[in-house]
Amino acid sequence: MLLKIRKSKAIHFKSNDTPKGRLINLSSHLxxxxxxxxxxxxxxxxxxxxxxxxxxxxxxxxxxxxxxLHFTLVPTFASYPDKKDPQRRIHERRFxxxxxxxxxxxxxxxxRQVLNGQVFNSDD
Length: 124
What we know:
There is one protein chain. By secondary structure, the chain is mostly beta strands. Helices cover about 10% and strands about 50% of the residues. The two termini are about 20 Å apart.
């Protein structure tokens, strides 16, 4: 099952490939295969944070109250041969961290509802 996060100027994300201290604006839809997700966490930022955009030209302000979803994918999602030992493979844990600013809290609520529907032993 694919989880679709719709493009929005109020949603930002980062992944393994994003340079440290940078965020990417969600300018196209982001699809995450839920069968590849091994860990999922969600939290709310308590303090305002400022980080740079991907190109480094302007500051992105993540206000306190920004909702965050953090996805960690299975290690076999990204693997490559070890340069020192070709018989061995290096397995990289891929992650996506998605930031929903207060303007995008409705989108966050919809995604949380879908994700909670996938949990079989929900606390609700």
